[in-house]
Write a structure and sequence with these properties.
Blueprint: H1 15-18, H2 20-41, H3 46-58, E1 61-62, H4 63-69, H5 74-86, E2 90-95, E3 98-106, H6 108-129, H7 134-156
Antiparallel strand pairs: 1-3, 2-3
Length: 157
């Protein structure tokens, strides 16, 4: 049976395929697909993972701040937190000093799940980067941080 080749196989031959923005997008989507698959093996979604990461690394957060950190709109965050709260992974409470704000925190179950998921994500990253020179990875990370900073600065103009 002949090897199947689609658009992805020929991306590097088109001018668009040489565009940095396009290549970063393709790399991000491929990496996200890998993480989605690994997280699905654990019974969760990437959307759950990013909320758990934010709360685990930053501590309790005001709901609107959490939405900004994970880059979702308020109503999307409400639905996501409804699901996580129903699963016993997060708890919401009134924020001290601000009746309109809701504080979100991880429960013990949420912290335990974060630990298991962190291991799965770290294993996926090790698998992904196994045959890439660590110096190249470090350079890529540095350059991507610079690109993000520059893109944000340009949007602020």
């Amino acid at each position: 049976m002949p090897e199947r080749r689609g658009p992805a196989a020929d991306e590097s031959h088109a001018p668009l395929g040489r565009s940095l923005g396009y290549q970063v997008n393709v790399a991000a989507r491929a990496t996200r697909a890998l993480l989605d698959a690994r997280l699905a093996e654990q019974g969760v979604t990437f959307a759950t993972w990013v909320v758990l990461v934010a709360l685990s690394t930053r501590g309790d957060l005001i709901q609107r701040d959490l939405a900004g950190i994970v880059d979702v709109e308020g109503p999307t965050m409400v639905r996501r937190l409804d699901q996580l709260e129903a699963a016993g992974l997060v708890a919401r409470s009134a924020a001290p000093g601000d009746r309109r704000a809701t504080r979100v925190s991880l429960t013990g179950s949420g912290r335990a799940l974060y630990g298991r998921l962190r291991n799965a994500v770290e294993e996926a990253e090790v698998d992904l980067l196994r045959e890439i020179d660590p110096a190249d990875v470090a350079t890529t990370q540095r350059v991507l941080r610079e690109i993000v900073d520059r893109a944000r600065a340009l949007r602020q103009r």
